[in-house]
Amino acid sequence: MKYLTILLSLFTFMSCGNSKDAKAMENSNQIMAQIPGTYQVTSIEKNDASSNNLTLQFDNITKTVSGFSGCNRFTGNYKLDGNSITLGPLASTRMACKGSENTIEQKMLQALSQVNVIRFENQELILSNNDLELLKATKYFEDKIAIENNYVIEYTAQTRGFYNHYIFENGSLSIQKDRTTFPVIKTCSQEDINILIREVEAIDLEKLKTLKAPTEKRFVDAAAIAVLKVTYQGETYQTPEFDNGEPNTYISSLVTSLLGLAEKQ
């Protein structure tokens, strides 16, 4: 009888363990199925961040997370284990950040570095540190954005000895890094196309010509002269000249995404 009791207790313990493992596996599979895609960050530590155009993008195939953090783009790995998630280490581009964009970027990257729990609630992604909510985001559900005969986004940066020219059009990016060479054409992923189209759609194109350059290094040959041009429905909208890598805050997200895509392998 004594041995039977021990065996029953052991069986019960093992059953509970298997049940917990099965539940954790089920949670992990559900999250893994939900997580791929692009999200707009709506709050950081419960403070509204919806106007900053912050994004998160999860790729389930490569297990990478990337996005726009307010001034720069970042990328890194993620690992799921049930409801637990580990992000990073994250690497960022190095565009100079000033004022509010620098503050929001620091807050977002700090929040991401502390995340260890993931959950979905009312179709929202919530990232937490244990019970402390750090970041909330809403998923973009569109499967495809029409790209034919839509936007042409062009970025040029040049000095006497430096030349970069990028043109995004119809889902492809033309990359030319030398005046004497032919452009290289890169076919963009649907995720990258969606990001660029969303960002250019968020801009009032008429406002481009009024944007003031935040720095003036180009006047003393300390920076290349840059220009952003967008063509839409036969009309062309162009910024005044600005320092390469330091655009006006109003277009920094779009410029960062475009330059990041040009460097993406």
**What is the global morphology?**
globular
What's the Cα radius of gyration?
A: 23 Å
Helix content: 25-40%
What class, by secondary structure content?
alpha+beta
| Oligomer state of the chains in this structure | single chain
Please tally the helical runs, counting DSSP H or I stretches of 4 or more residues. Answer: 4
What percent strand?
Answer: 35-45%
Quick rundown:
The chain is of the alpha+beta class and 265 residues long. It has helices at 2-34, 99-114, 190-201, 252-263, and strands at 37-44, 47-48, 55-59, 64-68, 73-81, 84-87, 91-92, 117-121, 124-129, 132-139, 151-159, 162-169, 172-176, 184-187, 225-232, 235-238, 242-243.
Please give a structural write-up.
- This protein is of the alpha+beta class and 265 residues long.
- It folds into 2 domains: 32-139, Lipocalin; 151-263, no CATH class.
- Helix content is 28%, strand content 35%.
- The strands form 2 sheets. Strands 1, 2, 3, 4, 5, 6, 7, 8, 9 and 10 form a 10-stranded antiparallel beta sheet that branches. Strands 11, 12, 13, 14, 15, 16 and 17 form a 7-stranded antiparallel beta sheet that branches.
- The longest helix has 33 residues, at 2-34.
- The N and C termini lie far apart (67 Å).
- Residues 143-149 have low confidence and may be disordered.
